[in-house]
Amino acid sequence: MTATNGDGSTAAVRAERLCLLDGDRIAIRYRSSTQVFAWEEIICARAAKNGTWIVTRHGEFKIRESIGAVVSRLEAVGIVQIHRGVAVNGAKVRQLVGRSQHRLGIILDDGQVFQVGRQFQRMIRGRYGTTTWRPAR
Question: What is the pTM of this model?
Fold first, then answer.
Protein backbone atom coordinates (compact mmCIF):
# COMPACT_ATOMS: atom_id res chain seq x y z
CA MET A 1 0.00 0.00 0.00
CA THR A 2 1.70 3.14 -1.17
CA ALA A 3 1.46 6.88 -1.62
CA THR A 4 3.56 9.09 -3.87
CA ASN A 5 5.99 11.37 -2.06
CA GLY A 6 6.96 14.84 -3.23
CA ASP A 7 10.12 13.49 -4.88
CA GLY A 8 8.14 10.93 -6.92
CA SER A 9 9.04 7.93 -4.76
CA THR A 10 6.36 5.77 -3.20
CA ALA A 11 5.92 4.65 0.40
CA ALA A 12 3.32 3.00 2.58
CA VAL A 13 1.20 5.46 4.50
CA ARG A 14 -0.66 4.58 7.65
CA ALA A 15 -2.96 7.48 8.27
CA GLU A 16 -4.61 8.33 11.54
CA ARG A 17 -7.56 10.54 10.75
CA LEU A 18 -9.96 11.35 7.93
CA CYS A 19 -11.70 14.73 7.79
CA LEU A 20 -14.27 16.06 5.35
CA LEU A 21 -13.43 19.72 4.83
CA ASP A 22 -15.67 22.27 3.07
CA GLY A 23 -17.64 19.63 1.16
CA ASP A 24 -15.25 19.60 -1.80
CA ARG A 25 -12.04 18.42 -0.19
CA ILE A 26 -10.88 15.56 2.02
CA ALA A 27 -8.00 15.73 4.50
CA ILE A 28 -6.08 12.67 5.67
CA ARG A 29 -3.71 13.23 8.57
CA TYR A 30 -0.75 10.95 9.15
CA ARG A 31 2.15 11.54 11.50
CA SER A 32 3.09 15.22 11.28
CA SER A 33 1.60 15.97 7.85
CA THR A 34 -1.82 16.25 6.27
CA GLN A 35 -2.71 15.27 2.71
CA VAL A 36 -5.56 17.36 1.24
CA PHE A 37 -7.23 16.43 -2.03
CA ALA A 38 -10.53 16.79 -3.87
CA TRP A 39 -13.16 14.12 -3.28
CA GLU A 40 -13.11 13.33 -7.02
CA GLU A 41 -9.63 11.89 -6.55
CA ILE A 42 -10.93 9.04 -4.37
CA ILE A 43 -11.23 5.82 -6.36
CA CYS A 44 -12.38 3.36 -3.72
CA ALA A 45 -12.14 2.28 -0.09
CA ARG A 46 -11.32 -1.26 1.04
CA ALA A 47 -11.71 -2.81 4.47
CA ALA A 48 -8.54 -4.03 6.18
CA LYS A 49 -8.07 -6.00 9.39
CA ASN A 50 -8.25 -3.03 11.73
CA GLY A 51 -9.09 -0.13 9.44
CA THR A 52 -9.84 0.99 5.91
CA TRP A 53 -7.55 1.68 2.95
CA ILE A 54 -8.64 4.71 0.95
CA VAL A 55 -7.31 4.49 -2.61
CA THR A 56 -6.78 7.81 -4.41
CA ARG A 57 -4.94 8.88 -7.55
CA HIS A 58 -2.06 9.86 -5.24
CA GLY A 59 -1.76 6.54 -3.44
CA GLU A 60 -3.36 4.50 -0.69
CA PHE A 61 -3.93 5.70 2.86
CA LYS A 62 -4.93 3.57 5.85
CA ILE A 63 -7.51 5.06 8.18
CA ARG A 64 -8.05 3.64 11.67
CA GLU A 65 -11.82 3.44 11.26
CA SER A 66 -14.17 0.74 10.03
CA ILE A 67 -15.37 0.88 6.44
CA GLY A 68 -18.88 1.62 7.69
CA ALA A 69 -17.67 4.73 9.52
CA VAL A 70 -15.67 5.90 6.51
CA VAL A 71 -18.62 5.37 4.13
CA SER A 72 -21.02 7.22 6.42
CA ARG A 73 -18.63 10.20 6.50
CA LEU A 74 -18.01 10.21 2.75
CA GLU A 75 -21.57 9.39 1.62
CA ALA A 76 -22.24 13.10 1.16
CA VAL A 77 -19.54 13.32 -1.52
CA GLY A 78 -20.68 10.27 -3.50
CA ILE A 79 -18.92 7.27 -1.96
CA VAL A 80 -21.17 4.20 -2.32
CA GLN A 81 -20.72 0.91 -0.49
CA ILE A 82 -21.02 -1.99 -2.95
CA HIS A 83 -19.81 -4.89 -0.83
CA ARG A 84 -19.34 -5.48 2.87
CA GLY A 85 -15.65 -4.63 2.44
CA VAL A 86 -15.61 -2.28 -0.58
CA ALA A 87 -16.95 1.19 -1.38
CA VAL A 88 -16.40 3.11 -4.63
CA ASN A 89 -16.69 6.69 -5.83
CA GLY A 90 -20.11 6.75 -7.54
CA ALA A 91 -18.90 9.35 -10.05
CA LYS A 92 -16.23 6.94 -11.33
CA VAL A 93 -18.64 4.08 -12.21
CA ARG A 94 -18.53 3.52 -15.97
CA GLN A 95 -20.48 0.30 -16.43
CA LEU A 96 -22.58 -2.29 -14.60
CA VAL A 97 -22.06 -5.86 -15.77
CA GLY A 98 -24.72 -8.40 -14.85
CA ARG A 99 -23.82 -12.01 -15.44
CA SER A 100 -26.85 -13.60 -13.80
CA GLN A 101 -29.60 -12.67 -11.40
CA HIS A 102 -27.28 -12.69 -8.38
CA ARG A 103 -23.98 -11.61 -9.94
CA LEU A 104 -23.30 -7.97 -10.65
CA GLY A 105 -19.99 -6.26 -11.34
CA ILE A 106 -18.98 -2.62 -11.52
CA ILE A 107 -16.32 -1.30 -13.88
CA LEU A 108 -14.74 2.03 -12.95
CA ASP A 109 -13.31 4.68 -15.29
CA ASP A 110 -9.78 3.35 -14.79
CA GLY A 111 -10.79 -0.23 -15.68
CA GLN A 112 -10.91 -1.70 -12.17
CA VAL A 113 -13.63 -4.32 -11.71
CA PHE A 114 -15.45 -4.94 -8.42
CA GLN A 115 -18.14 -7.47 -7.56
CA VAL A 116 -21.29 -6.08 -5.93
CA GLY A 117 -22.47 -7.94 -2.85
CA ARG A 118 -25.95 -9.45 -3.02
CA GLN A 119 -27.34 -7.21 -0.29
CA PHE A 120 -26.17 -4.09 -2.20
CA GLN A 121 -27.35 -5.08 -5.70
CA ARG A 122 -30.88 -3.66 -5.49
CA MET A 123 -29.58 -0.28 -4.31
CA ILE A 124 -26.86 -0.19 -6.99
CA ARG A 125 -29.27 -1.18 -9.79
CA GLY A 126 -31.73 1.50 -8.61
CA ARG A 127 -29.06 4.17 -8.35
CA TYR A 128 -27.83 3.60 -11.91
CA GLY A 129 -31.23 3.09 -13.52
CA THR A 130 -31.44 -0.67 -13.99
CA THR A 131 -34.05 -1.74 -11.46
CA THR A 132 -34.72 -5.19 -12.89
CA TRP A 133 -32.50 -7.93 -14.18
CA ARG A 134 -33.11 -9.25 -17.67
CA PRO A 135 -31.19 -12.17 -19.14
CA ALA A 136 -29.22 -11.61 -22.33
CA ARG A 137 -31.01 -12.76 -25.48
Answer: 0.79
Strand order in the sheet with 79-83: 10-11, 3-4, 59-63, 51-56, 42-48, 86-89, 79-83
Q: What is the pLDDT of residue 9?
A: 45
> What are the boundaries of each domain within the chain?
3-89, 92-127
C-alpha span between 73 and 99 (Å, rounded) = 32
CA–CA gap between residue 32 and residue 128 (Å, rounded): 40
69-106 pLDDT, tens digit each: 999 989 988 999 999 999 999 999 999 998 777 789 99
CATH 2.40.50.40 fits 3-89, yes or no: yes
Contact 67, 101 (CB under 8 A): no
Please, what sign has the CA dihedral across residues 18, 86, 11, 111? negative
